[in-house]
Design a protein that fits this description.
alpha/beta, 3 domains, five-stranded mixed beta sheet, four-stranded parallel beta sheet, 18 helices, globular, binds flavin mononucleotide, binds iron/sulfur cluster
Length: 463
């Protein structure tokens, strides 16, 4: 029997008659978890979140409880801020917007609890600029929550005050990187800050301690308060707890967003049972499992996965791509990452050089330009893949791509460096024959033939 979805965050989303207004939310038990939270101490809620083992859903999978633990409100002389990261600009990712459009009060309830737990009195939702409707829905939801006494002064009759403001983003991918986001929120260009010293928990918004969490992460908080951290930790598997929103796009019959217990299903079950298989009955070629910056995985490849057995000893198994379970640790062991939950599926008809050229175009456009390796390197990589798909590649191009990528990753201010280098490193390493075909045989992708004049920059040839 196919694995069933476990809808925690999406429990009401897309249900007949469910609307984003507060009356509907209250009719469905909304804000009960906030009322419960307000009877607890903030540190007790932080302890429950630590027990839950919740990991961030924005990309890096960092422990939410640990992040909150860096902030000790008692020791702080400065205000503490909380920012909900609703930028959602990682290609292949379309989950946070569903929550915002269809169940905004779930996010607000999670945020209010998170703010109360961390003694935050002013919070922001930084929403991607293009989500005009989403910003309007959130503004309305905030006004409704205020009218009902869940926001503003003396929330629900307690002595706790909180204001939440919606801030529309500046329309760039880098605005989703937490320190770039903070700069943008402060009214500046979204140039990421160097860490250390600018860890948001220490020197964040207005140089005050700041928690930045993803939309989905914050929604989980209300469920943790309702069921308790230990009960929540039983969902999924150790260190990979809770549910995960998965966004499937590309060459499958039924793309869409789904919610499963973390690690409850394999890649094969997701593609074949949930998404109806590869489009047109064709064969699978590759999968990017966590948004475009995650390393690509190739069908037919074998992965050695180490895992802990119930008795605490380690075991190693060799598995294929379709046997990989969708959790943080297994995807990391397979050499990629769960990232933002954006799963991009490519079938046998895809030209992998063309796919990489597409990704490179995005990153070359989105580099903020502060660091030389990222600014120059992302553009070089785009130029090289552009000429490869135009049938004007040079024999050394695959090697050149690798060299440039290797010299970006680990040498930049923010993780955008890795985000643009990892696709290049993995595509070139995993599909050498396709890159060689374009480079040696000067094969053009049909749609791109003759689109780029060869640009044999002396520096690029020499590298
Ligand atoms: C280039 C770049 C873009 C990012 N974009 C997003 C984004 O759109 N949404 C998001 O939640 N996190 C994004 N992140 C991750 C954030 O920096 C941060 O880690 C995250 O918001 C923390 O939330 P979490 O702990 O709840 O996952 C991005 C990171 C990088 C390096
Ligand atoms: S790595 Fe790229 S995006 Fe990040 S700060 Fe440097 S230039 Fe900007």
């Amino acid at each position: 029997m196919p694995v069933q979805e476990r809808r925690l965050i999406l429990a009401n989303i897309d249900r007949d008659g469910y609307t984003p207004d507060i009356d509907c939310y209250l009719r469905n038990g909304g804000y009960a978890d906030l009322k419960k939270a307000l009877t607890l101490d903030g540190p007790a809620i932080v302890a429950e979140v630590k027990t839950s083992q919740l990991r961030g859903r924005g990309g890096a999978g960092f422990s939410c409880g640990m992040k909150w633990g860096f902030i000790d409100p008692k020791k702080n002389t400065k205000p503490v801020y909380l920012i909900c990261n609703a930028d959602e600009s990682e290609p292949g990712t379309f989950k946070d917007r569903q929550i915002i459009y269809k169940d905004p009060h779930q996010l607000l309830e999670g945020m209010i609890i998170a703010c109360y737990a961390n003694n935050v009195h002013l919070a922001y939702i930084y929403i991607r600029g293009e989500f005009v409707l989403g910003a309007q829905i959130l503004e309305k939801a905030i006004a409704e929550a205020k009218t009902e006494g869940f926001l503003g002064k003396a929330i629900n009759g307690t002595g706790y005050d909180l204001e939440i403001y919606v801030h529309r983003g500046a329309g760039a991918y880098i605005c989703g990187e937490e320190t770039g986001l903070i700069e943008s929120l402060e009214g500046k260009r979204a140039y990421p800050r160097i860490k250390p010293p600018y860890f948001p928990a220490v020197l964040g918004l207005y140089m005050c301690p700041t928690i930045v969490n993803n939309v989905e992460t914050l929604c989980n908080i209300k469920h943790i308060v309702r069921m308790g951290g230990a009960e929540f930790a039983k969902i999924g598997k150790p260190n990979n707890t809770g549910t995960r929103l998965l966004c499937v796009s590309g060459d499958v019959e039924k793309p869409g967003y789904f919610e499963f217990e973390v690690g409850a299903l394999t890649m094969g079950e997701l593609i074949n049972d949930v998404c109806g298989g590869i489009k047109g009955g064709r064969k699978l070629k590759a999968i990017i499992p966590g948004g475009s910056s995650a390393k690509v995985l190739r069908a037919g490849e074998r992965y050695k996965i180490k895992s802990k057995k119930p008795d605490g000893t380690m075991e190693e198994k060799e598995i294929g791509l379709l046997d990989i379970t969708l959790d943080f640790d297994t995807l990391a062991a397979a050499g990629s990452m769960a990232g933002s939950g954006g799963i991009i599926v490519m079938d046998e008809t895809r030209d992998m050089v063309e796919c990489l050229a597409n990704i490179n175009t995005f990153y070359a456009h989105e580099s903020c330009g502060q660091c030389t390796p990222c600014r120059e390197g992302s553009l070089w990589m785009k130029k090289v893949t552009d000429r490869l798909v135009a049938g004007e590649g040079l024999p050394g191009d695959p090697k050149l791509l690798k060299t440039v990528a290797d010299n970006i990753a680990g040498r930049t201010i923010c993780a955008f460096g890795e985000a643009c280098a990892w696709p290049v490193q993995s595509f070139v390493a995993k599909f050498p024959e396709e890159f060689a075909k374009h480079a040696e045989g000067k094969v053009a992708t049909a749609a791109r033939k003759g689109t780029v004049a060869q640009e044999p920059s002396k520096a690029m040839e020499a590298a």
